[in-house]
Structures
1.
Amino acid sequence: MKIAISQPGYLPWAGFFDLIDQVDQFLLLDDAQFVKQSWDQRNRIKSSTGLQWLTVPVVFRGRLGQPLCEVEIREPQFWQKHLRSIEVNYGKARYFESYFPQLKEILERYGPGEKLIDLNLALIQWLAGELAVKTPMVRASTLGVEGKRSGRLVSMCKLVGATDYLSPRSAIYLLDDLAMFAEAGVKVWFQNYTHPEYEQRFPPFLPYASVLDLLFNKGPESGEILRSGRGQPFTPVQVRATSAECEASI
């Protein structure tokens, strides 16, 4: 049983869905502490001038430290600006009409008082379906597991019977806590993903936009293209060596 755990952001990039696609169960870390101006509430699309941010306005003042699952959307019809920006930049993309209506229908459901997490999850479920990513997803908040950082991850692994944990490459703090996973009988791996290039509007190609960019440009080929960036997962030893090389070059 291989699992991955990650926060469900707004209109995530291709690598997020590759992570989900590699495991038997994916835990959505929906009760992690919300960080303002993070991927939780924003992402980027490709425009004629580069990568452009789309940000969901949320209620933040007076709610420092709130969990992601409690964050509320602040402004009515915020999505009008998002949809307009998407239409301006992708309206002439080959597969724009195949996906824009459903995207619009989802976004229009959400306004002030609605939860950001519900919007994010609705979009993630839709995007996963279009990419043929079929891994079951579970909200971490439903598991009743307490703890912090690695300790909580280990507890969730044990609860669902995981033998292998696939981590996002950026979570190198796990290297200090490998003994906790080993004691629980869980092997730790790190995602190895190189963003694939494809025909994109407004050359040259720019990676790390929302996966919407891939869908609008490549349509039914998107799932295959997404998976083409996948490499054999890194071991902790490989990640440690790579991190040491990076530090030595600074």
2.
Amino acid sequence: MQVVARNDVFSQARYRNRLLDALRQPDAELLAGASERVTLERGQVLFEPGDDVGVVHFPCGPTIAALIVTMENGAVVETATIGREGAVGGIVSQGNLPAFARGVVQVAGPAIRIDATRLQELKARSVAMRNLFARYADCLLAQILQSVACNALHPMEGRCARWLLALQDRIGGEDLPVTQQTLADLLGVQRTYLSRVLASLQRRGLVRSNRGVIRIHSRDELEKASCECYAAVRSHYDAVLSGIYPTAPLATGTGGPAAPGVLP
């Protein structure tokens, strides 16, 4: 994992994490002095269940992390996808707390890293920062709750379409660097089942899967194939943190314009 000098953190990260870009300049400067820019690798585990979460990561640009729950029999399922709209770690907790899920990097890329205790000290100095991060925690909880309902009630094709749309929102571009095995694991199904679902979407001209990449051919039609959960989560983000959730796919590797401020 590569680390960049702290005084270069925000000059290189602007327009790359929408949650940080929503901060006013004085608060951004507070975080800049206590943060460092790192490069996360695909498959890198940020924390395991039971670990003290002592570090908070803010994914930047195309970087994607996921919160994954593992059962006693080894089965896994993804409960939240986190990209440039958010953070991974105890963003609203008071000090270090044990993790409940595994935090793992799904798409490699840059991130801003800050010590959780240091972040708590900075939040104590800024009401606006505390409010922003508390609002984000509400949005993350909404995503997790919607994921629980989705996993229990919706057919696999709709769930798969929802996940692909959410991934494209955060990465941008048509090509999603995810294997069928990884997608099957995140959705909690066998790869053979997932392959049949992707084949159905492919026959309809929505996607194409090839050599570790899934390409989205028709965004509009994929949204129609998705279950209601995709729109529900986006709507909640817009209501609670307007401008934070990516509103349209962007070219891979670009951060796009800064998110508008979300606090008075």
3.
Amino acid sequence: MDLAYTIAGFAVGAIVGLTGVGGGSLMTPLLVLLFGIHPSVAVGTDLLYASITKAGGTVVHSLKGTVDWRVTGRLAAGSIPATAATIFVLSQLDRSGHGTSGVISMALGLALLLTACALIFRRRLQAYALTRPQPSQRAVAVATVATGAVLGVLVSISSVGAGALGVAALVFLYPQLPAVRIVGSDIAHAVPLTLIAGLGHWLLGSVDWTLLGSLLVGSLPGIALGSHISTKVPERVLRPTLAVMLVVIGGKLIAH
């Protein structure tokens, strides 16, 4: 166990508890930029970290009845095959090479910028979705599966996107769905997505189990603390601050 990793896990966990976002968005770039972990190992380890932490959230949401399993199933129908295909493609590449490392860092940087946009424009996106002509149920179902496929590719490469991007997409596709059910459905979908992607990276040798344990030891109490004080910190301060952090980090990774 490395104390520095545990402290980093606690800090990121607290931010996740405060904002509901930031796991992969902060943990993976933190491991790459601050600790110098190879991008492929950072992504693989963070995917299993996300699957474990979000499993707990899924249980809570499921018990509260705030998971729309139909929506979750549609997302998974797209993400699971896309994840398997992406892992297969990654297995054919030289992941230790500088070129692959650069591609992963670039994908991670772009994913962070997209996540920042999703945080900033989510309310406007929902307002537009409520006023536009409503598409047919079939079109919504097809679009949800396609969204899952895109998330599967993005998350498998960068470990980012299952949270804020997934929520933003669901807000646009299901504007009438209560926010708590959108969040619950997105978290439930993130569990099989990150688990399968994480296990795929493990088979590729891109998971550091000691690092994973150190992060979990810190993040679980961090999430609990952040969730406890989240009601005392205004959202209008938290989300823009997190968005700015993601833009800065994303820019650094793209230029990395």
4.
Amino acid sequence: MDLASSLIGLGFVLAVIIPIVWSSIAQKNKKSKSLNNFLKLAEQQQLKITVSDVWSDIHFIGLDSEAKKLFYLKKQENDEQSVLINLLDIVSCKVVNIGRTVKTSNGSSKVIDRLELKFTYSNAKIPEKTIEFYHIDKNAAFGSELLLIEKWENLIKMTMKKKGSVAG
């Protein structure tokens, strides 16, 4: 009974663990392949990405710190949006948090509908650009996008402060 029970228990444990590990490895490989494709697209734009992030498996953002350029890609099945922003032409970058207040049994809480980074150009004739980090109708779930957008806002602002260090 001891050996047979142990083998049966081990079999059940392996039957549960193996698919989880397999799925995790497959997801990691998919994310790595997607990031490599993003970096290749950035190279085609003559960019050397030094900092990058991927979220929701469809959003990619990268910064070429030396050239002071930001590259963003949103890649879905039938839709691809890429944005290249020269940070030397930008006067401001700020987080746009569009939401609403919802009444709950405990009072009220804020629901985030959209998170974007908005860029304003020094040339007023150039329209502002936005980069979407989250949209309630397009993203399955809200995760770390709020922390991520704040990270990128700070990173971009720090890069913009160093404008004078690039020969133009």
